[in-house]
Write a structure and sequence with these properties.
Blueprint: E1 2-5, E2 12-15, H1 19-33, E3 38-43, H2 51-57, E4 63-68, H3 73-81, E5 88-92, H4 101-113
Parallel strand pairs: 2-3, 2-4, 4-5
Antiparallel strand pairs: 1-3
Helix pairs in contact: 1-4, 2-3
C-alpha cells in the first residue's frame, strides 16, 4: 500500500514513511510555493514494498529524495525499486531527534539547484 502526494507533475520524488512523511509534506508544500515541482510517494506498508509505483515514477521524475529517520535503509529499497534509473539523495537523521521541514526543504532545493551529493 502507498499514498501519492502531488505527484502529477513532480520532477523530484520524495520517498518517506511514518513521521518523516508528515514532515516531508510540509516541506513539499513550501517547495511548491517556491515553484519547485516536487511530490511524494509514501509507502504505507514496507512489505511488500511499492516497487512498481516507484519504478513508474522513475520514468517521469529527474531525482528521488529518501527522507528517513535512520541510517539510510529506505534509500536502498528506493534504488532497487527504481533500478537506479535516476539519482537518489538522502536526507536523514538518527538518535531520536526528528528533522525539521526546513531541513527537508533545503535538501529539495539543493537537488533543484544541482548541488546535492548523490548517495
Amino acid at each position: 500500500m502507498y499514498e501519492e502526494f502531488m505527484m502529477d507533475d513532480a520532477e523530484i520524488c520524495v520517498v518517506a514513511f511514518g513521521i518523516a512523511s508528515r514532515i516531508s509534506k510540509n516541506a513539499i508544500v513550501e517547495a511548491r510555493k517556491k515553484g519547485i515541482k516536487v511530490g511524494m510517494i509514501r509507502p504505507i506498508t514496507l512489505w511488500p514494498f511499492p516497487k512498481d509505483v516507484l519504478n513508474k515514477a522513475a520514468d517521469k521524475v529527474k531525482a528521488f529524495l529518501s527522507v528517513e529517520l535512520n541510517m539510510g535503509q529506505l534509500i536502498e529499497d528506493v534504488k532497487l525499486a527504481t533500478n537506479c534509473k535516476k539519482p537518489t539523495y538522502l536526507c536523514n537523521r538518527t538518535g531520536g531527534v526528528v528533522m525539521s521541514p526546513d531541513e527537508v526543504l533545503k535538501s529539495i532545493e539543493d537537488i533543484e539547484k544541482g548541488v546535492a551529493v548523490e548517495w
